């Protein structure tokens, strides 16, 4: 399989793992892997077909990238945006000392932009109203059973995420085996039927892009924001409806928990870069206090 390559010098210091962290669904993610040689491997669907991208940052800051598969050219063309070059924090002002300190401690934080809606949509839907453990297990199993092996000399087990056609082919018992309940599978199949149209959201960007995603039954504000954060690095797409985020923001900025309405109020001065605040707080280690009952882990395969 032909290999294409490219070298890139970015005008800013790069933290590859930090920039790409939102794309990785756990240490066992079959579609994104960091190896012991300092390389990062990404397998993806593109408008041109599946592709594999591997990149490494040299000591002088130069990014060396190689790619294989029908989507190789697309992945290399999108490399700068993937590494945060399209991110622009112009006009961002820290209205809280905690945010200012978090920003100072994370000078390399940049928002990734894959330019690909579908690959961000599937895991986002899987994460609806379930624990992280459940969602990541379903993601791994769907990728293993319905995703293609990554093109080129990729590490063993690296898989391209299931395509829209593959998702449409999943049978009821296979959904059940993967631990995906009826509500989430219905949303995924509905999205798969219009997947090519949904890719336009990455070009529309902002609220218009998120509104296009929400036209799919089962995709609400939370899911659209999770997709937007990854597909076009949306700096204002806050995950309203999240189990953890309002408390993270509330305890960090006010010392108390918040609901979505309260979070919207406290983040309002940061528009149109409200999600950037959340990223800074998370990068600084702010978390939701760990007390009270945990969200129960369910196994739909046993139901």
Automatic annotation (TrEMBL):
InterPro entries: Alkylbase_DNA_Glycosylase/TA (IPR051912), DNA_glycosylase (IPR011257). GO terms for molecular function: alkylated DNA binding; DNA-3-methyladenine glycosylase activity; DNA-7-methylguanine glycosylase activity. GO terms for cellular component: cytoplasm; protein-DNA complex. Keywords: DNA damage, DNA repair. Coiled coil: none annotated. One of its GO terms (biological process) is base-excision repair, AP site formation. PANTHER family: DNA GLYCOSYLASE (PTHR43003:SF6), DNA-3-METHYLADENINE GLYCOSYLASE (PTHR43003). This is 3-methyladenine DNA glycosylase/8-oxoguanine DNA glycosylase. It comes from Saccharomonospora xinjiangensis XJ-54. The lineage of its organism: Bacteria, Bacillati, Actinomycetota, Actinomycetes, Pseudonocardiales.
């Amino acid at each position: 399989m032909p290999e294409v390559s490219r070298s890139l010098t970015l005008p800013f210091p790069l933290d590859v793992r930090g920039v790409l962290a939102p794309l990785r669904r756990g240490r066992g993610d079959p579609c994104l892997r960091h190896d012991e040689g300092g390389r990062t491997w990404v397998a993806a669907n593109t408008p041109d077909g599946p592709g594999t991208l591997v990149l490494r940052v040299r000591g002088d800051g130069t990014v060396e990238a190689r790619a294989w598969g029908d989507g190789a050219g697309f992945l290399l063309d999108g490399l700068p945006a993937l590494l945060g070059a399209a991110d622009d924090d112009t006009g961002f002002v820290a209205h809280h000392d905690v945010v200012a300190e978090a920003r100072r401690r994370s000078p390399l934080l940049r928002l990734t932009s894959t330019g690909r809606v579908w690959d961000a949509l599937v895991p986002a839907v899987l994460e609806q109203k379930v624990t992280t453990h459940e969602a990541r297990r379903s993601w791994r199993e769907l990728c293993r059973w319905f995703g293609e092996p990554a093109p080129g000399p990729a590490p063993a087990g690296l898989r391209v995420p299931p395509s829209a056609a593959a998702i449409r082919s999943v049978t009821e018992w296979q959904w059940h085996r993967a631990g995906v309940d009826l509500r989430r599978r219905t949303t995924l199949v509905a999205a798969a039927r219009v997947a090519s149209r949904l890719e336009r959201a990455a070009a529309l960007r902002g609220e218009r892009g998120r509104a296009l995603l929400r036209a799919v039954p089962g995709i609400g504000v939370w899911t659209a924001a999770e997709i937007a954060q990854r597909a076009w690095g949306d700096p204002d797409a806050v995950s309203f409806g999240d189990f953890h985020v309002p408390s993270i923001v509330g305890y960090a900025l006010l010392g108390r928990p918040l609901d979505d309405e309260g979070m919207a109020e406290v983040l309002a001065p940061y528009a149109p870069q409200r999600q950037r605040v959340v990223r800074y707080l998370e990068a600084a280690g702010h978390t939701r206090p760990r007390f009270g009952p945990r969200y129960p882990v369910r196994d739909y395969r046993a139901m």
